[in-house]
Each structure stands twice: as structure tokens, then as C-alpha cells.
Amino acid sequence: MKKIYFDYAATSIKRKKILEDILEKADLFDGNPDSSHSFGRDAKKILEESRKAIAKSIGAKPSQIIFTSGASESNNTVLSAFKNKKIITTNIEHDSIENTYDPQNTILIEADEEGISLDQIKEKITDDIKLVSVMMVNNEMGLIMPIKEIGEYLKEKDIYFHVDCVQAYGHLDIDVDEMNIDFLSLSGHKIGGINGFGVLFASENLPSFIKGGEQEKYRRAGTSYVMGAYSMAKSFPCMISEREKIKDLKNYLLDSLAKSKLSYQINANPEKTVDHIVNIYFKDYRSDFLLTYLDMHGIAVSAGSACRAGAVIPSKVVERIYGPDRASHSLRISLGFENTRADIDMLLEVLGELDDR
């Protein structure tokens, strides 16, 4: 039985050619990049070339790029720096934001099926607001937020702007200067890189979140993860080249659903969502049943975020926008570079068999 993977928003299938490339030049990764010998210098060269490539991909300077263990650490670092300050964020942020902010000092913007608006931000701005944190693309429903408009407004207000770009990176154009972004979080494994590596763009220094050595110019301690940086830098150009394919797959999925006999609704306006995430409400079947049923047929999907220790928990985002019943009957289909139209045909065929029973 062929296994089909529709859970790229949780983590991408690994890019085998990049892993093979790393193995072929494994000797260059052996040294600690902070060591002064030739082994260290080889690793340092790869690390800094990767930093330049990642910086260029978001319109930043290499000196503004801090390597971390992942976007959760990057998000934690930013919010911890504003722990005693008044901030604004939304009710559909990733858990690494939601579980870090101080509720007493936080104003929440409530999203609807089209996301949030600049006007909602404007209504909540007061003189004591120091930070606004808004994800560019929601990880559970794929909603795209008006980041450029928010950034332009906040620049005039002299308020810091943090953006979690994990689900946007590679799928949408990002330029930190054009969007007036002060802090930005990324994660390598979402685009085909190795797990356990992330990026924090910081327009100015923040207090070090991980204490220890002098790595990352004193901004983040810990031995640098050279393979992680390299795999992320090499994965980004692949993402750009795959955009049209992912867009075609989304359109094919939506068109095929419309032609099917399945009883469903799309969560969120498809015109307001990123191409690789489609969240679907199946009123006749609970999501936990569908997840098990599809897995038995070799098809991997999800109900919500994968950050819940493996538990099948309905999407908090669908629940907050549509209600708990709809959330408990919804699935997230997230598309990636190894998917084909035939995979979508198989998904709908397997789901269609339920109605034939």
C-alpha cells in the first residue's frame, strides 16, 4: 500500500537530495564552527554562507539573523523580552506564543473566517502598547494576515512588530524592510530542512534567551547546528520553484471536492488562505474517526496543530472561529512537494467509500 503524506504543515517530508548532499560532504560538517582549527573553519564557512542565504530570502542582513532550535524558541525569545510590557496578539496564534504571553498584559484580537484586519489592531492601540505579534499565515486554517498593512501602521506608532512566518516562508514573499517587521520567526523543518533548527530575525538585540557560551555574537548560546542551517538554506530555493505546483494541487483539491458527493464545507475563505493548507469540515464524521480511518489506508492528515504531544485534539482555531462541534469534525490537508493529483484522487476515493457503506 502506497503511503500518502498530507501533513506538511506539521513537518515537511525531508528533501532526500539535500540529505545526500550533506552526507557526500560530511567531513565539512565535522568541526565546531567556533573552533580555530581547519575543521572549525570549514564548518564556520558553511554556517555563515547559510546565514547569508537565509538573510537574503527575507530581505535582511546576515548580522540580523540569529540561529535557534526552532520557531518556538524564536517566538519565546521575543515575547520573553516583552514580558512586563503591554502587547497585542491574536486568539489564533501558535501555542509557543499563546503559552508565553502574560494574559494580564496582553490584548487579544479575535479572528473570523477571513482572519484579522488592520482596523481591529487600530482599535486596540493605546500609548502603553510596546509590541504587536501576529502570525503571517495561520498554521491550522491557512489564513493570511495583512502583515504589510499592519507593519506600515505600527512604524508610524513606534511600536515593535513581531511576525511568526513559519507557514508563510517559501510560500509567500517576505521582506522585513518592506513589511516593517522588527522580529520574525522561522523553522527549517517546515520547508524540507532538518528538524530542530530555526531562525530569529531581530532588527535590534534582545536579551539572550539561552544562556551559556558566546555563540551567535552572545545572542544565543549553544553549539551551532551547521547541518540544520545548511539544509534550511538549500531548501528555500526549492520552495520557490514549487509554488505553482502547490497552487495547482490546491485548486485541484477544491475542484475535485466540488465534483464529489462528499458532504463538506471549507473552513475559511479559500481566497484568504495560503495554497498549501486546506481545512475541511465533514459534518457526518468526527475528525478522530477520519484520522484513524485514513491512516488505516496509508493517508496522513491532521485535525489541528501537531504541538499537542500526539493527541488527537480538534483545531483550537476552527473551534474559536466556528465553534467546538465544527472543530471536532474538521481535517487539515496540507500539501507539499511530493504530492500529486493522484494522491488527491486517492484521498477523495477513500473518503467517498465511507458514504458507500
UniProtKB/TrEMBL annotation:
The keyword rRNA-binding does not apply. Residues 4-347 form the Aminotransferase class V domain. Its cofactor is pyridoxal 5'-phosphate. InterPro entries: Aminotrans_V_dom, Aminotrans_V_PyrdxlP_BS, Cysteine_dSase, PyrdxlP-dep_Trfase, PyrdxlP-dep_Trfase_major, PyrdxlP-dep_Trfase_small. SUPFAM superfamilies: PLP-dependent transferases. Keywords: Iron, Iron-sulfur, Metal-binding, Pyridoxal phosphate, Transferase. It catalyses: (sulfur carrier)-H + L-cysteine = (sulfur carrier)-SH + L-alanine. Gene3D superfamilies: 1.10.260.50, Aspartate Aminotransferase, domain 1, Type I PLP-dependent aspartate aminotransferase-like (Major domain). Its EC number is 2.8.1.7. Belongs to the class-V pyridoxal-phosphate-dependent aminotransferase family. NifS/IscS subfamily. This is cysteine desulfurase. It comes from Anaerococcus degeneri.
